[in-house]
Amino acid sequence: MSLNFRFAIVSDLHIALPHTIWDHPSRFHLVEVSIPAFESVLEHLTQLDLDFVLLPGDLTQHGEPENHAWLQQRLAQLPFPAYVVPGNHDVPVVIADKQSIAFADFPHYYRKFGYENPHKLYYTTQLLSGVRLIGLNSNNFNEQGQQIGRLDSEQLNWLEEVLAASKNELVLVMIHHNVVEHLPNQSCHPMANRYMLQNAKELVQLLQRYGVNLVFTGHLHVQDVAHRGGVYDITTGSLVSYPHPYRVLEYHSDNFGRQWLQILSHRVESVPDFPDLQQLSKQWMGDRSFPFLMKLLTLPPLNLPTQQAQELAPSLRDFWATIADGDGLLDFPQFPQKLRRYMQKYGAISAGGTPTFIDNNSSILLEKN
């Protein structure tokens, strides 16, 4: 049986009504554009013949009830179904405080967007005939009350039961934290590991066992497609940080069992108060990049002396913007050779060392289930 459908991904919206905007001189996020950027995206998406849209977390700035309420009401107006999962910003506390909703309250806001059972933070639903979505909650809290990215054993057991019962369906998985590394040694890098699911290996092995190819993530705020053992982790950048991207994807299969996923990426070029959003946003990110770059250069594995890091950091002003944009090539010939080679690894380079541009616009031939 052939299967064809089209859907969109809009990630890390960080919706913030004007009176809720949290300001900090070093933040990378242009939350000021969250609502107008989202409206711009919806204006485009409603012109397409979409079957559904996925929103892989960080829906709100900091889990504010009024921002969740605004988004819930806006999604209800769409001409196609929308499905969400929580990001770390959506459920930052276990018990509600003056700023954020309680961890357990999230599903109650999104009962029309996947959470038919408001007592669980994960769900499964049939999107189309033969197509199933599994929405996972990757947010957890350790014994010290710190928020971490991890699937507990109860959710993993539930997931295996769902996968075992879905053998004749195409399964799509949506989760906030990354499950395949998008950056060099991401799972053990002191700055990047928090964007990875702590037990990603266990989840990937489970997905491999049941022939699941496609996982859609957010959190990292970059455009990147990574794969491991037949599992593709397609992460989408944030709508409130450069390059303000979103994706439109088309899935095709035929009677011979061949399956393709075509990925097209778009950017929000402007909003009313930011007519040149792309240029301003890239500059905004570069202006705030120095503390981030100092950490990158002085922490493991580079461990550069502070003085050397201070001398090199200005040359890396657009380093993160290039990564966030996807399909970038990074080379700094003026750097010491070891450091130059390390920075090159952050670019769109395959394991064989050749440029591979699949992060934004590509067509992937998927393995058979």
Automatic annotation (TrEMBL):
SUPFAM superfamilies: Metallo-dependent phosphatases (SSF56300). Belongs to the cyclic nucleotide phosphodiesterase class-III family. Transmembrane segments: none annotated. PANTHER family: CYCLIC NUCLEOTIDE PHOSPHODIESTERASE CBUA0032-RELATED (PTHR42988:SF2), PHOSPHOHYDROLASE (PTHR42988). Residues 5-222 form the Calcineurin-like phosphoesterase domain. Pfam families: Metallophos. This is Metallophosphoesterase. Signal peptide: none annotated. Keywords: Hydrolase, Iron, Metal-binding.
